[in-house]
Design a protein that fits this description.
The complex is a heterodimer. Chain A folds into 2 domains: 118-363, Aspartate Aminotransferase, domain 2; 366-490, Aspartate Aminotransferase, domain 1 (Alpha-Beta Complex), CATH 3.90.1150.10. In chain A, 33% of the residues lie in helices and 10% in strands. Chain A is built from 17 helices and 12 strands. A 7-stranded mixed β-sheet of chain A has the order 1-7-6-5-4-2-3, sandwiched between helices. In chain A, helix 4 crosses helix 12 (348-361) and helix 13 (366-383) runs parallel beside helix 15 (450-469). Chain B is an alpha/beta fold. Chain B folds into 2 domains: 66-76 and 335-443, Aspartate Aminotransferase, domain 1 (Alpha-Beta Complex); 83-329, Aspartate Aminotransferase, domain 2 (3-Layer(aba) Sandwich). Chain B has helices at 8-18, 47-59, 82-88, 91-94, 106-123, 135-150, 163-176, 186-189, 212-220, 231-234, 305-308, 321-357, 384-392, 423-443, and strands at 68-69, 127-128, 154-158, 179-183, 196-201, 224-229, 247-251, 267-271, 284-288, 294-298, 364-365, 375-379, 396-397, 400-401, 412-416. In chain B, helix 3 (82-88) packs antiparallel against helix 12 (321-357), helix 6 packs parallel to helix 7 and helix 12 (321-357) packs across helix 14. The interface between A and B is large, with 209 and 205 residues.
């Protein structure tokens, strides 16, 4: 594209004029709080509510939720949909988020009546297909991670982290080792790591990083000891760099009686090519909504299965799925289990999608990691002249650049992020990891074509060129999105979190 | 490859640009002994083969719609208006990420703001968040919040909480060193030692009790009052916020979300203003952009894990936003009036069914003194499991045999009606139960 020209692609897919004016809230589209769509007839002799519910306190006024006529609601949703960047419109290069394409067929399969219209309390004989899918998915994920067993119950990555840590605590407690109350976490880790540790009642101790973002083995060795329950790591780490010393780290951790926890957020770099179990990890969570392509849904639902080594299987959440002579069944009789971590058996609809995705690739799944790393390294090669890289080491499926020390000293990460929106490109993860100033973390994933990567690189080139000429235009971006930059400080100072007529 | 667009030509060009020879060279930093592990994975499948394979698995299940279903117990087969599915099937919503870049995510942000507003209206409270995983984890988060807020380490929970909710509260509580005790009358049990009092409306067995005393007693003891509420019930009953509760949580599955073998559903949480900064999860606020336009943005993020790390109010990151969208579209389509009618129709049918079943020999209500909404515990001849098995042979899912959750209720079954329960199904249930009763007389 021509440097300095307004991007030809519209920010979120429509002419700017269309964004003139606010989209009303549903509360402004209707005031009908007592009527609603045509009523379904009960078909039975109706009795008064006083008779059905004697002494029960009923609403004296309807809740303030209006029924919106369907044609009006449809257009409201259509207009809101066009205000979202999404994967069907352009690249979503958010580092650590693995925004890969979500296969259309997986959505179709999860909606089959045999899956979607199934109740968790139906008889075992009526749910054999669902249990078989879960049983097989567990085994496929065990092959991919090198773990002994996996619980599919956690609803998200952070939920899986906490579940894994609870199992590690149960393991130590079962050996009478009750002094292990600390967990070691690299300073570049995802924020969920320390938050999950705190929720499990563990004290967080931060481990220093080397210049390339890898764990400082000397510092780690110094911190290990009889009070450490676990070391939490991401590999490759949040800078996209593989922890070359991982086998040494595992040896030292285990020698000190600690267990090793794997944050699976970055598994897309290695899926099918190397396994956390072989590296010495004792507990591993996976983000099915990252590596295994289930959609992010604007923030969720995800799914965060957690795998463990043989020494930890007794502590898995209940129930587990087992295969016996009579077929598949749920095993609730697990006396050493940490208990239930959520209702029922997990986000089953997400499990169906992930299962379909893994069966599609099967033994060819290493190609996912190969192409994910290829795409990231190629994009990095295209951006090297524009932005300094956070570390010199070779990165894998993602990399961290910085605007600090770049061609335009005043250009900040947020400016690049916001201006990219004008090019129909979502911003990379900005200001993470916090160990890198003005960080821009790119993760393109394997489902982007070379042309798409070139488009992103061209947009970055154009933005830097523009900043050299007219910095203010970049700093006031975005210009072509439905709204311009938002006063976040004011929003937090005077929070308006629900609709009221006076808003 | 299935979802990898670059072919050999592009790969070659890209490797050249990077300056390496082969794909394998990209993994040079991974120790050789770790690379290319032996894995037992099946052959790849073509899309057509995949559809057939998953179709076979789905066909090994017996969906509720293929039978007359009276199974509820926290997961309900409610009618889902077509526009709900149409909305969540839009890639603009389902493929989007958490709306960090607000300017390109106004669609998601505005629907979440609408969700928050509706949950406030439904529960009678001031602030609601952008969703949690499910009803059970929402309740557990509320208990954790209360423990931190009060600095106390005990929770009193009503014995009639959903057993899955109680189990999950216990798992969370153990991690934080919080003790959980249960009581039939929470209001009489809660004291100055307690972080919170937790009740359910309706209870797991479908009954409605006067929960005001629990809220009052908690308040007097300086404890946080928490109500686990059914959202459809909130359209009919006085909302828990108006009854004095500080936190209302629940599962939004009845609001347009398929049972899906237990998930994904969506948890909701609403709180009083004073507890706003202790809330877990995302919050969307209404703000202005630099041109003065209305704009929505994630706000109060200083509570969250990506900023506050180990001092965050919760570890939650990914939530259930798409399911919250389903609930939002459902509520906007139905309105408060439509939802109240759903509640009434369900209750009318359930009471009609209860009247007819209890007219049969050996069938009685287990808790006849307690009013119920659309679910009731029914004492049946020969015990719940045998009765359910007999009904199952006739294509009827008669309800949940309660021995599965409470051995003392082995003679009972939990029966549910919703607005999707056909009157013909009700007739078939009564006829089949009648035949069952008659067969016992003959056998005797």
């Amino acid at each position: 594209m021509t440097p300095g020209s307004e991007p030809s692609e519209r920010g979120v897919g429509a002419p700017a004029a269309e964004w003139a004016g606010d989209e009303p809230l549903v509360f402004e589209l209707s005031s009908d709080v007592s009527g609603g769509p045509r009523e379904v007839r009960s078909g039975v002799p109706e009795r008064s509510l006083d008779e059905l519910l004697p002494g029960v306190s009923l609403r004296t006024a309807p809740a303030g939720i209006p029924a919106v006529p369907e044609p009006v609601l449809a257009r409201h949703l259509g207009r809101l949909a066009r205000r979202n960047h999404n994967l069907h419109q352009g690249i979503y290069p958010l580092g650590s988020c693995t925004m890969k394409y979500n296969p259309a067929v997986d959505e179709q399969l999860a909606g089959l009546d045999g899956f979607a219209d199934l109740h968790p309390y139906q008889d075992t004989a009526d749910i054999q297909g669902a249990l078989q899918l879960m049983w097989e998915l567990e085994r496929l994920l065990c092959q991919i991670t090198g773990m002994a067993r996996i619980s599919l119950q956690p609803a998200a990555g952070a939920h899986g982290e906490w579940t894994g840590l609870r199992m590690i605590q149960a393991y130590h407690a079962s050996r009478g080792d009750v002094r292990r109350t600390r967990v070691l976490i690299p300073d570049s880790a995802h924020g969920t790591n320390p938050a999950s540790a705190a929720l499990a009642g563990l004290e967080v101790v931060h481990v220093q990083s080397n210049a390339d973002g890898t764990v400082d083995v000397g510092d780690l060795a110094r911190l290990l000891g009889s009070s450490v329950a676990a070391v939490m790591m991401t590999n490759p780490n949040t800078l996209g760099v593989f922890e070359r010393e991982i086998l040494e780290i595992a040896r030292r951790a285990h020698e000190a009686g600690s267990l090793l926890y794997y944050d699976g957020a970055n598994l897309n770099a290695l899926v099918g090519l190397a396994r956390p179990g072989d590296m010495g990890f004792d507990a591993v969570h996976l983000n099915l909504h990252k590596t295994f392509s289930t959609p992010h849904g604007g923030g969720g639902p995800g799914s965060g299965p957690v795998g463990v080594s043989a020494a930890l299987t007794d502590f898995l959440p209940t129930p587990t799925v087992e295969l016996g002579d009579d077929g598949y069944r749920l095993d609730r009789d697990r006396p050493l289990s940490i208990g239930k971590v959520r209702s029922h058996y997990g986000n089953f609809g997400m499990l169906v999608r992930a299962y379909a995705y893994i069966r599609t690739y099967g033994s060819s799944i290493p190609e996912v990691a190969q192409n994910a790393v290829l795409n990231a390294r190629y994009l990095q090669s295209r951006l090297r002249d524009l932005f300094p890289m956070a570390v010199a080491s070779d990165s894998m499926h993602e990399f961290v650049a910085t605007t600090r020390g770049g061609r335009v000293p005043e250009l900040r990460a947020i400016d690049v992020a916001k201006r990219l929106l004008d090019y129909g490109v979502y911003a990379p993860t900005a200001y993470f990891p916090t160990t890198v100033p003005e960080a821009l973390m790119f993760e393109p994933t394997e489902t982007e074509s070379k042309a798409s990567l070139d488009h992103l690189a061209d947009a970055c080139t154009a933005i830097v060129a523009e900043a050299e000429r007219d910095l203010e235009h970049v700093r006031s971006a975005p210009h072509r999105t439905p709204v311009s930059r938002i006063d976040e400080v004011e929003a937090a100072r005077r929070p308006l979190l629900r609709w009221r007529p006076e808003n | 490859m299935a979802y990898i667009p670059n072919g050999a030509d592009e790969q070659r060009q890209m490797l050249q640009a990077i300056g390496v020879g082969t794909l394998e060279d990209l993994f040079a930093s991974v120790p050789g002994e770790l690379r290319h592990p032996a894995m037992d994975l099946p052959e790849p499948l073509a899309e057509q083969e995949l559809v057939a394979e998953l179709g076979r698995l789905a066909a090994r299940n017996r969906p509720m719609g293929s039978m007359d279903s009276f199974l509820g117990a926290g997961v309900y087969r409610r009618f889902v208006p077509a526009i709900v599915r149409a909305a969540v099937a839009r890639p603009e919503f389902y493929t989007a990420y958490t709306p960090y870049q607000a300017e390109a995510s106004q669609g998601t942000l505005q629907t979440i703001f609408e969700f928050q507003s509706m949950i406030c209206a439904l529960t009678g409270l001031d602030v609601a968040n952008a969703s949690l995983y499910d009803g059970s984890t929402a309740a557990a988060e509320a208990v954790m919040m209360a423990a931190i807020h009060t600095g106390r380490n005990r929770a009193v929970a009503a014995a009639d909480l959903h057993p899955e909710t109680l189990a999950v509260i216990r798992t969370f509580a153990r991690g934080r060193g919080v003790e959980v005790v249960t009581a039939d009358e929470v209001g009489e049990r809660v004291s100055g030692e307690d972080a919170c009092a937790v009740v359910a409306q309706p209870g797991f067995l479908g009954t409605v009790t006067d929960i005001r005393a629990a809220a009052r007693a908690a308040s007097e003891a300086g404890a946080v009052s928490i109500c686990c509420a059914d959202p459809i019930a909130c359209a009919l009953l006085t909302p828990p916020g108006e009854l004095g509760f500080d936190i209302v949580v629940g599962d939004g599955q009845p609001l347009g979300i398929a049972p899906s073998f237990g998930g994904p559903h969506v948890g909701f949480m609403a709180v009083r203003q004073e507890l706003m900064r202790r809330m877990p999860g995302r919050l969307v606020g209404l703000a202005r952009d630099h041109d003065g336009r209305r704009a929505y943005v994630l706000t109060l993020q200083a509570r969250e894990q990506h900023i506050r790390r180990e001092r965050a109010t919760s570890n939650i990151c990914t939530n259930h936003a798409l399911m919250a969208l389903a609930a939002t579209v459902y509520m906007a389509r139905m309105g408060a009036g439509g939802m109240r009618r759903v509640a009434e129709v369900s209750a009318q049918r359930a009471h009609h069914l209860a009247d007819r079943l209890t007219g049969l020999d050996g069938f009685t209500l287990a808790d006849p003194e307690r009013p119920f909404l659309w679910e009731f515990a029914l004492r049946v001849p020969r015990g719940g499991a045998e009765f359910a098995a007999a009904m199952h042979r006739e294509g009827i899912l008669a309800g949940l045999p309660l021995e599965r959750v409470d051995p003392r209720r082995g003679d009972q079954i939990l029966v549910c009606c919703t607005e999707t329960t056909a009157t013909a199904s009700v007739d078939r249930y009564v006829e089949a139960a009648s035949r069952f009763a008659a067969s016992l007389r003959v056998g005797a």
